[in-house]
Design a protein that fits this description.
It is built from 9 helices and 10 strands. By secondary structure, it is of the alpha/beta class. Helix 5 links the parallel strand 6 and strand 7.
Amino acid sequence: MSDSYENAEIEVEMERTEFMGREYQTWSVEQNVYKVPIDDEEEDRLEEEHAIISGFFSTTGEDRLYFAPLTRPKNILECGYGRGHWAIAIANQFPDSTVCGVDINWEALPEEPENLVLEWANLNKNITSKSKSGELQQGKFDYIHSRFIAFGLREKRWPSYVKELRSLVKRGGYVEFVEYDFLFQSDSGWCGYDPKQFAIGQLSDYVRDWQTRYHSSDARASTKLATLMGDAGYKNVVSGMYQVPIGSWGDSEHHRYWGERNKNNTKRLLESFALWPLSEFGWPDSEATVRSLITRAQQDLDNPHLRLYIRL
Ligand SMILES: C[S@@+](CC[C@H](N)C(=O)[O-])C[C@H]1O[C@@H](n2cnc3c(N)ncnc32)[C@H](O)[C@@H]1O
C-alpha cells in the first residue's frame, strides 16, 4: 500500500456500518456511492466470482485475466480493485510490470506483491488530477482494466469516465471494461411465462428501478460501453456480449460446471446487491419482505426449467 495513508479523511472513509447483518463502508453509504457490503462474506464471494469469470472464459485451462493481446505491459491500472483478486493475479503474471489499483474501499490486502501499488480514488470524480501517489498520469498505462464497478458509478459519469481512461492509456495500449447487464435472462424463454411472474425477475426489476430513482447508477451500462468508447475516440473497439450460465444446464461439461458454480455465487450476489436497495423502498414490514423476495429469487435459480443466464 502506498504511504499516502497519512490522511485522517481516509481513516474516516474506512469506518464500517452494520445493516441487516452485513457490513458496509459508512462513507460510501452516507455518500450514496456503493451500497454493497464489504465484509468477509462479500470478500469470499468476490474471490469466487473472480475464479468463475477467469475459468469460464479460459480457453487454455489457465485462468483468463484479459482479452486484449498483451505482451509485456509495463504499467497496468485496475479500477475498483475490490479485494485485489484480479490485481494480484495480473501482478504475479507480469512481475516486471507495475500494477496500480484504485478503490474507494482502500484497505490493505492479505497479500500484496511488490509490484502492486494501491491508492484511494473515487471513480465518480476525475482521478488523474487527484492522484496522491502520482501513479495516475496521462498516457502512462499499457493496459487498464475496469470490472464490476457499475453499482458505484453514476450514470452520468460513464461518458467522462470512459474518456478519462482513454487519456490515461498509452498510445497503442488497451482499455477493457467488464460489466454485467443486470437483467436475468432465460434460455427457455421463461417457460412461456412473463419474467415478472418469477421472484428473480421482480427482484432485478426493483434493483434497476432503485438504481434509476434513488442511486443514479446504470444497471445496463454494459450495453452502452462500445458506443461510449467510440464517442470517446477509442480506436479498434471490440465488444462482446457473453452469456454466463446460472445453473448446471447446457451442452458442454464446461458450461454446466461453471454454470453450477455461478448459480451458487449468484445466490450470494442477490443478497449483496439487493439488501440495501430493496430496503430503501420503505415497504411495510420491510426487513421480512426484502428477505422473503431475496429468498424466493434465490430459489428460482434452482429451477432447472428456466435455464438462466446473465449477460456480461
Ligand atoms: C463488485 S466489486 C468488484 C471488485 C473487482 N473489480 C473484481 O472484479 O473482483 C466493486 C468494487 O468497486 C469499488 N467501487 C465501487 N464504486 C466505486 C467508485 N465510485 N470509486 C472507486 N471504487 C468503487 C467497490 O469499493 C468495490 O471494491
